[in-house]
Structures are given as structure tokens and as C-alpha cells.
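pasting input
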Amino acid sequence: MKTYLDCYPCFMKQSLSAARRAGASEELQQEILLNVMDELQSLPLSITPPEMAFKIHKSVRQKTHNSDPYKQAKDQATQEALTLYPELKNKLGTASDPLEIAVRIAIAGNIIDLGVNDSYDIKANLNRVLTQSFAISDLPALRKQLEECSSILYLADNAGETVFDRILIEQFNKPVTYVVKAGSIINDATHEDAVAAGIDQVAEIIDNGSQAPGTLFEQCSESFLQRFQQAELIIAKGQANYESLSERPAPIFFLLQAKCNVIARDLGIKETDIVLKQQLKE
Amino acid sequence: MKTYLDCYPCFMKQSLSAARRAGASEELQQEILLNVMDELQSLPLSITPPEMAFKIHKSVRQKTHNSDPYKQAKDQATQEALTLYPELKNKLGTASDPLEIAVRIAIAGNIIDLGVNDSYDIKANLNRVLTQSFAISDLPALRKQLEECSSILYLADNAGETVFDRILIEQFNKPVTYVVKAGSIINDATHEDAVAAGIDQVAEIIDNGSQAPGTLFEQCSESFLQRFQQAELIIAKGQANYESLSERPAPIFFLLQAKCNVIARDLGIKETDIVLKQQLKE
């Protein structure tokens, strides 16, 4: 997905938020915003939003000398999600279609995205996502693929969301490889964040070799790319994975909430809509 | 009030919205945004948000060759507000404190602000503002001043909001001068917009000589400035009037909704809070 003009103000908001989280002074915050405007003026709209975000957040980290401005927010999100885990597992126990509920739970967790908004209400969002209609739902196709595949490659999104992913993974009853980022970028999950969510108990954790949001092939490691190309079934969580993979033929199911009007427009849906969308191999 | 760093992304959103309303092509929209970034990089934060908005929207109008991008939105807002007028007048007829209800109605109308957000729900907002507590309320002082003054200077904000202002003006039973902008700026009311709302039936309409949001003294006409300096009681509607007059000693009552976190922070209140705030002469 290309970058839209609406992404410009959003990147400005994101950088300001990152700069503040990194403890930057007012002067440094302003310097960072002026620099982001230089970057936005020099980058072509043809690149994807995750590519832009990669460059912008890298420069914020460098200017603030803070390698992980979202560390505290990530830890808090994981802790909050873990307190919800027992209750959510109970819900599955009584569900008539546990897979659908687990998919909804994993999508609900996708609200924990500090790239799009600066805060979220996970409980209110859970209540909504557990009952609202899917704007796009390829659940029958996912069910079929899950039966046929021998393993699953799961592209993670944010820390905290990881706990909700775990619930879905526990539903699969198939070997899962959980792919995190190789370094800190916004509140995306790293190896450490995945372990804190207990993912190591239910899946193999690997990183994609990249410190960008989503999955930017040109930054990913050879070993990850090999796994991707050989995967029978890929679960891709969140907006950035959609933005970076929407034009790549592969056996992907995108699970996300449309958290801004740009992605909503691209998918032909409305903001706050939820999506389980199949992408084909060719 | 000075401009905050949070205003930068907001100005970008505003210019994109204005460019689209003016019918600009994708290419021109991008050119406009790149140009706005140049402007933001060159303007000092010490100037007020209305001063920034003045420069930015002027350049959008010039680049799009459209002198009034918000014309259609303004006409629609006025028409929608006029359909609500009879019902709102009925509310006043049965109110135990008609002045308070009229103040609330005028503040509710302030949601019609296309500078901050790109859309609004006037009915939902009316229901909220008619019952929510004031974050700041100097109603007793306003009541006293209204009794003592011989006339009122009323600084308008947006088209459509004008209809709600009319309801408050009809409650005053004092001569009112209604001050609009001398030219189109965002969806601020001009003479034509005020007449469409029926303000000419309840007040004298003048303009302030300026085509900026709020009240920028250095742009205002001598005749308006004289009226301002001699005014016994000034009603100033909306964020931009607060932003441009909050540090000017004058017998002002600010009536507004806090529609963004910048003004909320400046006033020490929360977003969506409503305010009736007295400013003193000295």
C-alpha cells in the first residue's frame, strides 16, 4: 500500500509522541518535528507507510539518544493484557465457535497500536470486537487452511497484543513460528516482549531481521525470507503488515482493525471495522 | 495563546482538508502540503494559532485559486442549524433559567468548527452540551454584567454556529453588534453567513476588517478596534477568539468547547469540556 497524503500529519503526531516518550525537551521536540518535515518533503509517496515510519522513528531515536521510547508503554500493555488472559480463556471454554472467538480476541488486541493513536481502551475495544460484524471475513477459508497446513507462520504486531495472539495460537493445535521485530520500533513486539507474554510456551519465536514496522522484505534476514516463502499459512497481524504485504502474493490471512481512514479507504471499509482477509498465493 | 507543537500536525490536516474542499488534484494537494511544511518550518511558535492558520489558509486559497473552499460546508451548516431553531426556541420557553440554556445552546453551536475536525454531529453535541457540567462557569458574573451594560459586542466564530448565537442574542434584550470576518477563512462566518442565519433581524452586523480566524488586532480595522476598546461587554465565541485574545485585558466572556487537547491544556481542562470564562479589563 502506498503512503497517502493523510499519512503526513499522522507521521508528525507519531514523531511528537515518540519524542515525548523519549523524554525530549520542548526544544528537541521542535527540532525533531522540523527534521521530520524535511524527511517527509524528501520521501516519495510511492513508498509504503512502514518504510516512512522506519526512517522517521529511526531519526527520533537517534536525536533523543533513546533506543526504545516505547519501552514503558510496551511493558504496561503486556501486563494489562496478561491480567485479562484468564477471563478470555474462559470465554473460549463456553464458545460455540472457539476459533471465531479466538480470531476476534486476536483482532481486539490490535487496538494496542501506539503508531496510530496515543492511547487506547482495551476493555471497551474487546467488548466491541467480540460482537461487531466483520467488514471482511474469510473465516471459512482460514478454517480450511488450518486443517490442511502442517505449520503456521505468525507475523506479530504490537507488544501486549502478543497475549491476545497467544490465545489464538493455543487454538490452532499446529506448530507455530511467531515472528517479531529484530529491534525496537514504535511499540512493535520484540523477542523480549513476546517472551513476557508467554509466547515461548506456545510457539517458536524468531525475528524477521528488521527494525521496521510491518514486513519490509528488503530489510528482512535471509532466514526469515526463506521461512516466509516456504510457509503454507501466514497470519499477518495489524495495519503495518497489511500496508507492507498487501501487494505480495502469498498464503496470508490479514487480521486487523482499521484504525485510520487511510487503511479503511484502501480496504473499502470504515474506520473501526474489523477484518479477516485472505490473500492468495498468486 | 502561543502555538504548541501539537498544532503542527493539525495545520497539516487542516490544509489537506481545505485543499480537497477547494477541488485540488492529488498533485496539487501534495504540493500544498509540502508548501505548508515550508511555512511551518519558517514560522516561530511564539505566534498564535490563528496567525499561523491565517498564513496557511491564505496560501491554500491562492494555490487552488478558490477564494472560499468552505462555502458549501458553511451553507449546509447554516441550513441544518435553521431547521433546529424552532425546537431550540421551544426549549427556552420551558426553561427555568433561559439564560443558562441559551448560553449552552450557543456553546453547542461551537462544534461547527471545520478547523479542528473535518466533521461533526450537531444533534449529538447539543444533547451533550445541554446537560454536561461546565468546566469553567462565570455565569453569575455574566448575568450581572448583562444587567449593567447598555450594549454588547459579540465576536462570532463559525457559519451555522451563527444560528445558535442568534438564540443567545435574542435572550439578551440589549443592543448587540455582531462581528464577523471581512473575508472567507475556514468556515468562519462572514456578513453573508450571518444574514443567512437571520442575525440581521436581531443585531447590527459589522466585520472586523480581517480575514484571519479569531481576532488579530494587527489585522483589524480602526473602526472595529474602536468598538472593541469602548465595549462594556464582549462575548467571544470559539477557540480562535480565545487563542488570539486570552492575553488581552478586556471585559470579555469566552464561550467555547475545548475541541483539541492543546486548548484544553492551556485552559487546564479536558477535551470536550465546555467553558464560559470571564476575562478582566485589567
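fyi DSSP finds twelve helices and seven strands in chain A.
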